[in-house]
Write the structure tokens for this entry.
Amino acid sequence: MTHLFRVLACIVLTLTASAAAIAKEPHVPLIPREVLFGNPERSSVRLSHDGQHISFLAPREGVLNIWVAPIDNVESARAVTGDRGRGNRSYFWSYDNRNLLYVQDTGGDEDFRLYSIDIESGETRALTSGDPIKGPDGAPLIDPNTGKALRPTVVINSLSHTRPSEIVIGLNDRDPRYHDLHVLDLETGETELLQQNDGYAGFVVDESYDVRLASKPRPDGGMEYFIRSDDGWEPFRSVPLADTLSTAPRGFDATGRVLYMTSSLERDTAALYAIDLVSGESRLLAEDDRADITGIVVHPTKRNVQAVSSTYLRQSWKLLDGDIADDITFLRGVTEGDANIASRSLDDTKWIVSYLRDDAPITYYLYDRPTKKAKYLFTNRPTLEGLPLAKMHPSVISSRDGLGLVSYYSLPVWTDPDNDALPDQPLSMVLLVHGGPWARDSWGLNAMHQWLANRGHAVLSVNFRGSTGFGKAFVNAGNREWAGAMHDDLIDAVDWAVERGIADPDRVAIMGGSYGGYATLAGLTFTPDKFAAGVSIVGPSNLVTLLRSIPPHWQSFRDQLRQRVGDIDTPEGRILLRSRSPLTHVDEIVKPLLIGQGANDPRVKQAESDQIVEAMVEREIPVTYALYPDEGHGFARPENRLSFFAIAEAFLAQHLGGAYEEIGNDLEGSSVTVPVGAEDVPGLANELD
């Protein structure tokens, strides 16, 4: 069958499936996209270290900013920043209890600068420079991939209550590949070099800001750890490639004698150890045979680990310090959901505690330890309260070679009347693939799941091999398996959903961002008849150009990428990478494709989307391309998020059926451009005019 006939057959099949699906309207009202994807009312809730103030991110004129209030009068909160662009995303309190610190980039370029806000005077100061990095000749260094001047990016290394007016930062303003450590004085803005970086991946400092531990990448992708002695750096731990994603230092206790480290050395899942650096004794503190130890709760001043968590299907906590046992018991009975300590005062008398559910917004409480009382504060998205939200069902799917794939699926609430976690008839389904790929999906409220389920689709998220958190054997099973066994896992999950009567095999779409975007492109090229449509967000199309264009400060990770993705430095490696690149197989695409891309993305550059769009246009293969000039690796501005999901919703409804909210005004305020394929999405061309 010629490519034209294959495309025509696809169109007929899609129209038939859509007509059948639209016939059954949802039995609940559509939840507006703005409710799901707009800014939360409050998030990132923190206590000042003296417990006198509470802070959070909240919209100010539609943009997330930092707000502060006295702890006894939360309703009087005032905005202390005035961002009008992409908004604040991450911030923290200094130990002087006067300065709030945050990092910000420009348009998603990830060249982060550090800023401080004095909550008393309201003064905002830039603490690091955004000036171009200069070479030995004094001229700005140029990124060969973009032609633009390289600019430094700051990383926050450490804060300590023992030095409240200072913090430790990393800056790559000397060599763009490596971050030197500096002590930054928050009062004067002056910096003092603490540790020059001559090829290290990173450093760990103690509470006194003494540099104690260093890591250096090995050519084979492994990592060498060194410990500081009177004679310089001495070898401490040798970590092979297989353990690098599950072995890492987690910090020192207050004495500086005990180092906490998660490690999978000589085992599969990462366990937590306490290493006495004087005696050399290594003591096992916590382990889980099914999942890595990932979360840790540390005392504010003693810095000893008090509790740890691991997540297989759901998060599970293990208590290590009896001092907080009564508190944990009390907090578990306050309300529904999984409790997490979000913030603590330095004297440990006040906690901010959050409660996570899968079918309700996050709830925040202020907990007073001396009186054992919890005061309700607010939820992060009150507009979701009382709405018909879908449950998220955990399940373990078996891959074709016997791996257990921890997965989560959601169903439209009206399709499971007997509550057996199965629909009354097969549904259209969206396979939602996480990014990374060295990350994972977890249980909880998920805006994408709620959005798609509310429109009438089943939604399935799969922790395919290569996902983290399930032990080193599972993550290493994904090495050099992009579009190989990693993709097979996704196909096995789709087949499982079909066999269970969850998914209609003719109405399955694939969607995701970053690696999930790549998986989408791979799905439409390597398994072109498996999916009815695809939505790729910042997805790489050519693994060779992806690896050649990584940012300079990713240098320490480069050898791992060579081993885990493919080696661009050898002819054999480049052959493998090209064979696994969707661009190589673009002729195989026969199903509708929507691509979203940020023009400033430093990780998956615009060229990755441009080149596959250009190849499809040359071959007269339909594609819709949404390009955002003020975004990076994902869509941070709420106007841009709303516009893309409005386009995606109409696109999916056209090819899967189901209900949808028309695009309407959701392009207003967005920077979206659609250079190709606007006419292929219902209503899009009209709204762009």
Observations:
- The first strand starts at residue 43 and ends at 47.
- Residues 213 and 227 are 5 Å apart (CA to CA).
- Residues 1-24 have pLDDT under 50 and may be disordered.
